[in-house]
Amino acid sequence: MSEKFKRDHHCGTLTKADSGKEVALCGWVSKRRDHGGLIFIDLRDRSGICQVVIDPDAGESFKNAEAVRSEYVIQVFGKVRERDAETVNPNIATGEIEVVAHTLNVLNGAKTPPFYIQDGIDTDENLRLKYRYLDLRRPEMQANLILRHKVTKLMRDYMDNNGFLEIETPMLCKSTPEGARDYLVPSRVNPGKFYALPQSPQIFKQLLMVGGYERYFQIARCFRDEDLRADRQPEFTQLDVEMSFVEMDDVMDMMEGLIAYVFKGALGVDIQRPMQRMTWDEAMDKYGSDKPDLRFDMPLINMVDAVSGSDFKVFNNIIADGGIVKAINVKGDANIPRRELDGLVDFVAIYGAKGLAWMQIQPDGSVKSPIAKFFDEAHLNKIKETAGAEPGDLLLFVADKPATVAQALGALRIEMAKRMNLIDKDKLCFTWVTRFPMFEWNEDEKRWVAMHHPFTAPCDEDLPMLQTNPGKVYAKAYDMVLNGVELGGGSIRIHRRDVQNAIFEAIGLTDEEAQEKFGFMMQAFEYGAPPHGGLAFGLDRMIMLMAKRPSIRDVIAFPKTQNANDMMSEAPNLVDDKQLRELHIRLSLLAKDKKQ
Amino acid sequence: MSEKFKRDHHCGTLTKADSGKEVALCGWVSKRRDHGGLIFIDLRDRSGICQVVIDPDAGESFKNAEAVRSEYVIQVFGKVRERDAETVNPNIATGEIEVVAHTLNVLNGAKTPPFYIQDGIDTDENLRLKYRYLDLRRPEMQANLILRHKVTKLMRDYMDNNGFLEIETPMLCKSTPEGARDYLVPSRVNPGKFYALPQSPQIFKQLLMVGGYERYFQIARCFRDEDLRADRQPEFTQLDVEMSFVEMDDVMDMMEGLIAYVFKGALGVDIQRPMQRMTWDEAMDKYGSDKPDLRFDMPLINMVDAVSGSDFKVFNNIIADGGIVKAINVKGDANIPRRELDGLVDFVAIYGAKGLAWMQIQPDGSVKSPIAKFFDEAHLNKIKETAGAEPGDLLLFVADKPATVAQALGALRIEMAKRMNLIDKDKLCFTWVTRFPMFEWNEDEKRWVAMHHPFTAPCDEDLPMLQTNPGKVYAKAYDMVLNGVELGGGSIRIHRRDVQNAIFEAIGLTDEEAQEKFGFMMQAFEYGAPPHGGLAFGLDRMIMLMAKRPSIRDVIAFPKTQNANDMMSEAPNLVDDKQLRELHIRLSLLAKDKKQ
């Protein structure tokens, strides 16, 4: 290293073992205090903090120290010594030592920062985003980005070890009418034409399989111009994977191995393999969700048999109309206040449920419920038995169309687990959800549409039903779920033209329409496409879960707000007319006001 | 692996040692030929090619083989056996064996490809680009992308080993008036505003240094909307690096280490360290270029002393006007035909030289030259001596302004080396070029402008000349050059406000103008910026050189043409009016025709 900015140790790594050593450090002043004629400085670099002490004998360097304020950049030469027992600071890694400085150089000054550079601040996030370079100095933010680096490094090591090639695909792509809204890029050289930023490298990775690359991956930036929710960003990163000559199990095994490798390497955690697997039907039935949180049980229980034949017309009518009745058993919550129960009615209403019924199991086993009167003793016993209800339990019922029951009761299950404090934040519960329905019915267009995308392969045993009963056809699709969050998902793709044609037929596309819509992709598949499949993991969300942060903005160096603004650089911004002229476009700001 | 697409070996890896083994292979039919009642198939996968032979006893599988054509995707089960001595094929790695198939399954058919899937084809590049997925199947293209994967993996390993963190920076950035033309992305949520795709992560990486990350790198996609030359793409990839608490030598040492590690790991080549270094002045003086090709010598020789005082007015006048006279000595080219010499006059004219003089040294040491008559014996001897000219040599002179001489004679040096076949294509000659001028004079604006960017640090010893003689101030900037190609470059950045102000003053920017132009960046630097510097390598070009390919398009999976088109997907394309309306823009295609 250069003499001028020499440093031979990092602040956070000094221990008692270094006592007596002469060290050179560089870093930022985290804190300075004067005490007993001495100056104490908490010096911070990427590795951590250590205490530097300097006394007036240091002459010029002491004068430098007197000028120093928070966030000054300094260089310190000194000797490591053990602290006296009573001054040991058990809160920091280097709390047993300090560095007695004989030389202190100020490398740069600093204005007073607009917020404290320390963990756990409750500064307004917009201010943190405006001064992102300062927010990024906080140790917890640095830990997030260091974790992110580690995770991507481990991913690449694993993929490389397993014969995958990282291949870059274009960012300036073709706009397609499918999927979410594209970000567009006007072309200067091709007047009137536009590129689209990729929503994913899906087409390119399949073409790489056609190209014979067999095992591809990429940690790829993707873009979606959608209205942003709390955990969405206009640009996001995914680990994108595709393999040839594989079936579902091959992809899932390979990806389980990846996740186990990454969690072990980055967090030291052992992931149990093979991971649990459940079908989409099971997940929806038991948890009311295709991304079930398995850190707690509280399954959705089918109560149709138990309530059938009672006098409760609401349930009877719904069942007669093809609806169902399900319940969750909230163990030990029988004493829930009435006010809170009313709140739960509002809660399930958000998910479209027209009502919520409850039964509180009394200490003597009797049932307290506004609807108890409609059920005889036998029915009540059957209900308790079916729900595994014991004294002290609370049963919550939703009766509706199956999809509504799943959605409302699935959400209520999570909500009640939170209220009952059933969720162990240190637990990592992985599961695969498989066999997604191939199609869903689009009521507006009165036709079947592909649930994933129309290149997803149907399950072999369901092929005969493609014409006769598309709603019963399942797909070779799979999602990996962690603690109720979808980490990633993928599918085996169709590689044979006859199957592809049957799918197009099922969703009502003629050959010409398919050709027009998927043109060069369809053409490519005629020149020897191998069987293939893949998966993509959402990297931002995965790191967020691993770092136990509440927002993906905490694991992205320079994120955007919900308005897709960069508060720091003030992007997007106005541009010169000349720039627009060169791109053959002009602003059309009044269009929406004209209500055309 | 799944049973259905089982394979337990790869085609290109089978050797005599595998003889007798039962193997399962999957791949593409490279060639099929029928001979002596048997069918021979060259089966290709990513690892290479091996010969499969199947005879009529195989029954159903033989029938399958009869149906197979080029580029069919098949699965083969069979036994490896050594070939007879006379059928060994020394041209392929697996030429000593073949696989006798007992089972052959067709996994997918293929239409006849529009060109041969083999190395060294001379197919029109546009056709190759249209069917890129087929072109990518050719073994030499696969080798390029495999090399690219290896290189980026090695880079990341080295950077990680040296404590660098890979941190992703945004793709949706702010448009700045500096530098090349931006690609713009209209914002839907912020009507009338635009993002710009990054030309480089320069500002973000410097902010990460302010943020205390100390060692950053990223393999980053960058964008420039410039008219494309043969070796340019609208999007390109660079290895971007930044370090804190460093001086020039630290960055250069670290990056030499990287290049040595990568070349050793990917090509098995040992790079000599430390690399040669020369200043920009030396490079321009001796090679007429800031990216000298050192695979051959032929330096530019200053002839001013040798020609002074002669009767040749052309030289005398140019020297009197502050110009110079330089020559190169093309060893052994004295017998160059006159016609070719005339061509060289045209060649240097491209670079702005008004003329070219020559001297052919005869076997007896005498000088044959149209201008010989203007020089007496003593001058001619001095010229020969200065140029190290011996019988058989050709001296080529350019006299002009120093910059013109450098450009013209520098280009001629390369041209003559090519003609004389002096360039050893297997040689790797690295050099650093350092101490670039800080400023260059802009004749249009009548002011000094920064040669790199205005955050580049001037050399410490030149600081006093910032006000008095900016033209003599050199920068802490460095380029790494390989075989006459700039691999990458960077600089130490200014971290202190007083120096930054002096630079702004030198280029005639007021404090307010600087603030407006570099706003949040200037602000960030007031909160404790560490000394820092970095560098960026152009990845596409580096891989191209390593793979010895003539074009970067050969090392990019899905490149664009010189019109920035993707021939395969036909991007850019027309988009819906609705998409434009949502982005608050409309086309303005007639603007240029209206000549506004």
Q: What fraction of residues of chain A sit in β-strands?
A: 15-25%
Please outline the major beta sheet of chain A. Answer: 8 strands, mixed
What's the arrangement of strands in the largest beta sheet of chain A? 6-9-10-22-21-20-17-11
Q: Which runs of chain A of at least 5 residues are low in confidence (pLDDT < 50)?
A: none
- What is the fold-level CATH name, i.e. the topology of the domain at 124-277 and 532-570 in chain A? BirA Bifunctional Protein, domain 2
Quaternary state, please? homodimer
Structure characterization notes:
The structure is a homodimer of 596-residue chains. Chain A has helices at residues 60-67, 125-130, 132-135, 139-161, 202-210, 248-267, 280-287, 304-307, 313-320, 338-350, 377-387, 402-419, 465-468, 497-506, 511-524, 539-547, 577-582, and strands at residues 22-35, 38-45, 48-54, 73-82, 97-108, 165-166, 184-186, 194-196, 215-223, 235-244, 276-279, 301-302, 324-330, 357-361, 367-368, 394-400, 430-434, 439-442, 447-450, 477-482, 485-492, 532-538, 585-587. In chain A, the strands form five sheets. An eight-stranded mixed β-sheet of chain A has the order 6-9-10-22-21-20-17-11, sandwiched between helices. Helix content of chain A is 29%, strand content 24%. By secondary structure, the first copy, chain A, is α+β, with helices and mostly antiparallel strands. Chain A is globular and about 95 Å long. Chain A has 17 helices and 23 strands. In chain A, strand 2 (38-45) and strand 3 (48-54) form a beta hairpin. The model of chain A has no long low-confidence stretch (mean pLDDT 94). Among the domains of chain A are: 16-108, OB fold (Dihydrolipoamide Acetyltransferase, E2P), CATH 2.40.50; 124-277 and 532-570, Bira Bifunctional Protein, Domain 2 (BirA Bifunctional Protein, domain 2), CATH 3.30.930.10; 296-423, Gyrase A, domain 2 (2-Layer Sandwich). Chains A and B meet through helix 3, helix 4, strand 6, strand 7 and strand 8 of A and helix 3, helix 4, strand 6, strand 7 and strand 8 of B. Strand 23 (585-587) of chain A pairs antiparallel with strand 23 of chain B.
